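#structure-requests
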Amino acid sequence: MRQLSALDAVFIGLAAMLGAGVFVVFGPAFELAGSWLMIAILLAGLVAYLNAATIAQLAAQVTRSGGTYAYGRAYMNNTWGFLAGITFLVGKIGSSAAIALTFAGYLLPDYQVPVSVAAVIVMAVINIAGINRTAFGSKILASITIFFLLVLMAAAATAPVVEASAAPGEPLGVFTASALIFFAFAGYARVATLGGEVRDSERNVPMAIRISLGIVLVIYLALGYLLTTRLGGNLGGTLPLGDLAQVSLRGVDAGSVAPFVAIAALGSLLALLAGMSRTAAEMALDGELPRAFAGRLKNGTPVIAEIAISGLVMVLILSGSIVFTIGLSSFAILVYYAIANLAAYRQPKSESGRPRAWNLAGLTLCLLLALSVPFSSLLLGAVLLSLSLFLRWGLRALR
């Protein structure tokens, strides 16, 4: 049943992108890129734009839920589709764990793990209650986050510019910083995973992706400029937007940002769990995951998949490392979009007038940034993807 409007889809995309990522990635990214932070943001934005155009290109023809999982199956083969589905799930499980840990770390750092687990449970319950509640919740949470960021940027624009600028980072550090910043962009394709539930999806899904990405790109560029010019070498740490608020708003300390971090994190987590459970359900329908994952309630929610995905997120939360889980997420999702670009390259010319050179550019940049993530995240991500393919091959050989 197609219940979501174009506006619903835009807000789900905004809630997915304007989550905890915007509040945490600028500090670690600055430590890597230094005064070249804006270059790292632009590079991440370029990759996001190319990928968004690719997803829009594919979503216009393949309206089935599942995103690149469905596209890989349609234009390549089932193995590529499976790999896309697994990279999506691994990446978003990492994202969900990082976001939940950020949420708890800002509010109740002494109880970070149990509070993170509780946040995942509450968001899963909301999703199980029905997709309309997910769309409504995304509208509320995204609106509050955008309002806060606009107020902060307006105040920061009147703050004095620092005289001492930071030194540029190492060239390779710019790529690693860009890979981390990409984490904050990666929610735009969440709309595509809900394609089967968006009205007039052939038109509304591509439009919603472009609108939500465009809004977020402008916000991130403005924040990057304000952070580097108002904080200079003091930019860094775990709460850069809190530091910006402290120098821009009278009587405000860095901790005042915490409630808005919590709101943004919940909005992003809500959308993440919805997208993952539906991708898992589509894979189950094709026999790529246990059939039980395809079971849905009367409201269309894949309840078993939602519970299983939420459980895996809670297991990863036990690692307690935000930066590590961000790196894992970025690696897997960049591989996911590399597969999307490859699928678009294989798409018949009769289905799209977009030059294939753009797909090759997106593929190349995705792989470049994926290989630039911190080594520990790269290693674990590669092991998980390889193990998933091996298990799939082994299970099929036994049938």
